[in-house]
Amino acid sequence: MKSLFKSAFGSLFLLLISLALTSCGAKKSIGEKGDMSVNTNLGAKAVIKNHYGAAAQFKTLSGRMKIDYSSGKNSQGIPATFRMEKDKAIWLSVFFGMGKALITPQRVAFYSSVNNLYFDGDFEALSAYVGTPLDFNTIQAVLLGESAVDLKSTKFKLDQSPGVYRLKPQRALAFFKLFIDLDPSTFKVVQSQISQSSSESALLISYPSYTAVSGVLLPSSIDVRAQLGTTEAKMSISYKSLTVNRDLDFPFKIPNGLQVLSLPKHAK
User: Which residues are within 8 A (CB) of 249 and not within 5 positions of it... i.e. 6 or more apart?
Assistant: First the structure.
């Protein structure tokens, strides 16, 4: 479970660093939550099965993003163009192409013409830098309103919480607290939190609302708050003009003259 906690933090770190450095179907708003009634006859296994059954099914997804990021005294709002080929690629372009990121299961690459920096490597290199495993699937899950935690690798129980299915580990964890709230009508994630009281570290991911795009239920926005000791980072992603299953390409070429971003290995 310790590696699960660190992996969730690490994958969000990758998303944050990619965004910070690189600093049309019919739509129907679902609202903050669906039907608030909870079927008490469902057990944890059935809820988890329904959550995975509710995973967004599409080939490609594209649209625009507004990314608001703050950490300490620094804050910025970043407009971005977003493309995804499910299970294969996540592509971002910010500031009219002045920064781009391309993330695949095998490759992580991003550059900033503004900062004159680039990185092009694999998850192993970034994992060594942050000191924890990173992976593509966790980042994709966060962007789609799906659990960033593998719900099949640990036994969960349902904990009573008004208006949601709250999943918590069946056995109390020695150093961590974890819960995942699922909407009772859509089985999509409402919010999830992982915390470590001994180091005052916590990661909270919440989804204020969802939107149906050509029959595919997707987040309208994502709020992320990461507390690592005394350092807090916040990120809010708002999706605009989402379109599914259009033909997409993922153009990515690092401009000449940029300096490689040096990532020293994490001290053990």
Answer: none
